[in-house]
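Tokens for chain A. Residues wanted.
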């Protein structure tokens, strides 16, 4: 016992401790006007401006209290414990800070012990502690008091843990009646559990209060309601936590002065549980405000990062490292990429001064897209070092951070990542929310994959090269918008534009000068009539004709059923793989999107008008394109092409004079002028760039604009990817 404390008879000490318990109970139940009490506490607060970094001290207190329990956590080894403590303690000026605060901590410790023995009212004891700490901030008051409590509480349990094997500890333990207390540990277990529960919530409140103090002032101020509300409640939180410290100290003092009889003869468990309940309510309120504060900070940081990204792409750089770090991962502490070839983690340096193609998508990227992309990528690698050394692809997975990362999402991500031969981001969590916002707002990402091209200096040279990659493959290198415009200038309306890179059989037919019908739709009866009449006309006109069924851009299940019938009835040649059909329509759509991206959708370009017709016919039923070798003869809707074939007898006499091509074209044009099929284009909201206006490819008038709600059931994507 410290010198200067009054000598007391055990019975007198027992009565004093009982008086403390009773006064504590009465204080909590009768002091209904918390405002009066807190006004008294706030009146003691006169900080002198000193800044105390209490976080290291709190770590030390936490370490002491975590070990000073009836049941030590056996999963934490001694070496681990020392390593943790050493790591926390080795902070700048930590030792000098402890030297400066030791006197204050000892004073508080003695004050608590003295008041516990003298039976002082719990509120009075708490108030005296506040008077001792008047010049400190609220978080410092709390942590210093907890340190004082940890000093006595830790000593109590240190002796309890080692007295059986250490003679010095044994002698000291006898003075503190520890052998007697441990002998009755069974009956005391509920008491220690109640103390431990209260200590746990005390530490939770302390951590929460310190967190508020450590919030970055550059991103949040007292003008934020959540922070100002929390600041107003922190004095109350500190008061009741220190009040709980006094209550816990009273229990330990009672045990060491009166032994186990102190506990079994009182009902103080109710007091501890009541304090724990009150602190839990305070903690819950503070945590709600803290969550709101962090959301505000994240939003401010996100805005700052977003603006930084915008500025970064307007600047000139010597290489692409600043840009790539800002987009993928800014620090150097981890390797943020996976090499698709070796499957090993690598740093961003592997992309330095290279053309980088950022493949941006969600986890719903289709297997068709991956399959064709991989094919184009591998083909480009076979061209030699010219392309191989100059560009790299990096997959940027975009995942909603507000959605909890689940096992199905993890499995889907790992499945996609393992299949990609190019670089991929190690984990979607590396991509910050501000970067996702930038990708969506500036690069117009709307869930459909895009391929943003950065030159060796990190400048965006194409906002989405996926369209030109689908159309021209690796021939589009270096995938710039200038290259895209150049490739369009070289193109003409010919059959190769529609089927290039899909099926070499058709390319051979073109070389042989055959007539070729590409046709599509999902009406099997129309398919039967069309193929029958086309074959009959070819025989009558004595022209070599081949027919290829290319399906539709949607309704895969229905298209598969049509394909099965075509095979069974031997109606025509067709592509056996649905991926080839998907690629055919994706290339056609990419031609439209490419023109939209270049701002040349409604140019007076005959080739583009024909592509738009074909896409429109697909939305409105069947269609057919007839070519003579490479030259396209007719591009028509089902309602005009089939009648033109059926009415062969009406125009066959013109074949000798005009030739088959012109005769068929002219008769089809007459039917077209009579029927005037509607033109329609559907742009999913997931499409990044949707034109504000569009001219009809048939009549060149401005088309009407509608909003459509559509539900297709032929392709199922796991719901978990969109929750």
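Reply:
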């Amino acid at each position: 016992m410290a010198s200067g404390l009054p000598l007391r008879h055990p019975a007198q000490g027992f009565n004093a401790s009982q008086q403390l318990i009773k006064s504590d109970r009465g204080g909590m139940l009768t002091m209904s006007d918390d405002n009066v009490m807190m006004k008294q506490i706030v009146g003691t607060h006169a900080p002198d401006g000193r800044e105390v970094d209490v976080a290291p001290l709190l770590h030390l207190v936490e370490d002491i209290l975590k070990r000073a329990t009836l049941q030590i956590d056996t999963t934490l080894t001694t070496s681990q414990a020392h390593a943790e403590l050493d790591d926390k303690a080795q902070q700048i000026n930590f030792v000098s800070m402890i030297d400066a605060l030791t006197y204050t901590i000892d004073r508080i410790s003695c004050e608590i012990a003295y008041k516990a023995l003298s039976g002082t009212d719990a509120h009075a004891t708490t108030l005296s502690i506040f008077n001792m700490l008047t010049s400190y901030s609220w978080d410092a008051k709390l942590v210093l008091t907890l340190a004082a409590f940890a000093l006595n509480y830790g000593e109590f349990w240190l002796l309890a843990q080692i007295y059986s094997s250490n003679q010095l500890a044994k002698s000291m333990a006898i003075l503190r009646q520890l052998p007697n207390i441990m002998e009755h540990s069974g009956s005391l277990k509920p008491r220690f559990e109640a103390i431990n529960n209260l200590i746990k919530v005390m530490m939770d409140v302390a951590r929460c209060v310190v967190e508020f103090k450590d919030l970055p002032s550059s991103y949040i101020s007292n003008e934020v309601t959540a922070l100002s509300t929390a600041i107003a409640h922190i004095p109350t939180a500190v008061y009741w936590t220190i009040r709980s410290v006094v209550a816990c100290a009273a229990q330990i003092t009672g045990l060491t002065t009166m032994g186990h009889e102190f506990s079994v003869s009182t009902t103080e468990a109710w007091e501890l549980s009541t304090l724990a309940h009150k602190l839990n309510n305070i903690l819950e309120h503070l945590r709600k405000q803290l969550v709101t504060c962090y959301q505000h900070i994240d939003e401010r940081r996100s805005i700052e990062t977003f603006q930084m990204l915008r500025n970064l792409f307007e600047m000139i750089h010597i290489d692409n490292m600043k840009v790539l770090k800002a987009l993928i991962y800014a620090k150097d502490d981890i390797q943020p990429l996976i090499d698709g070839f070796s499957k090993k983690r690598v740093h961003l340096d592997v992309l330095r001064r290279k053309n980088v193609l950022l493949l941006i998508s969600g986890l719903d990227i289709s297997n068709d897209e991956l399959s064709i992309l991989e094919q184009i990528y591998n083909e480009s690698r076979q061209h030699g070092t010219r392309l191989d050394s100059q560009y790299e692809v990096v997959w940027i997975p975009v995942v909603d951070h507000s959605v909890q990362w689940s096992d199905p999402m993890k499995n889907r991500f790992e499945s996609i990542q393992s299949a990609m031969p190019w670089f991929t981001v190690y984990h979607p969590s590396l991509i910050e929310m501000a970067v996702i916002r930038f990708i969506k707002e500036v690069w117009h990402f709307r869930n459909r994959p895009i391929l943003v091209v950065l030159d060796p200096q990190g400048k965006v040279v194409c906002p989405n090269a996926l369209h030109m990659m689908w159309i021209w493959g690796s021939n589009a290198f270096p995938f710039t918008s200038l290259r895209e415009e150049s490739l369009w200038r070289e193109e003409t309306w010919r059959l190769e534009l529609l089927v290039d890179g899909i099926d070499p059989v058709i390319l051979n037919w073109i070389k042989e000068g055959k007539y070729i019908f590409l046709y599509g739709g999902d009406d099997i009866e129309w398919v039967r009539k069309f193929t029958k009449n086309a074959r009959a006309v070819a025989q009558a006109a004595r022209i070599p004709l081949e027919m290829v069924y290319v399906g539709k851009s949607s309704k895969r299940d229905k298209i598969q059923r049509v394909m099965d019938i075509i095979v069974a009835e031997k109606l025509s040649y067709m592509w056996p793989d649905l991926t080839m059909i998907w690629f055919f329509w994706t290339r056609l759509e990419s031609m439209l999107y490419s023109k939209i991206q270049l701002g040349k959708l409604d140019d007076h370009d005959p080739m583009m008008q024909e592509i738009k017709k074909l896409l429109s016919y697909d939305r409105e039923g069947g269609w057919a394109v007839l070519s003579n070798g490479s030259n396209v003869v007719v591009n028509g809707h089902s309602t005009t092409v089939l009648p033109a074939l059926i009415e062969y007898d009406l125009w066959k006499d013109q074949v000798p004079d005009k030739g088959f091509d012109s005769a068929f074209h002219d008769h089809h044009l007459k039917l077209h002028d009579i029927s005037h099929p509607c033109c329609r284009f559907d742009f999913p909201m997931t499409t990044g760039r949707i034109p504000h206006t569009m001219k009809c490819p048939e009549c060149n008038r401005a088309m009407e604009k509608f909003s459509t709600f559509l539900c297709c059931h032929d392709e199922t994507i796991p719901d978990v990817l969109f929750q």
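The longest strand covers residues 355-361. The chain is about 60% helix and 10% strand.
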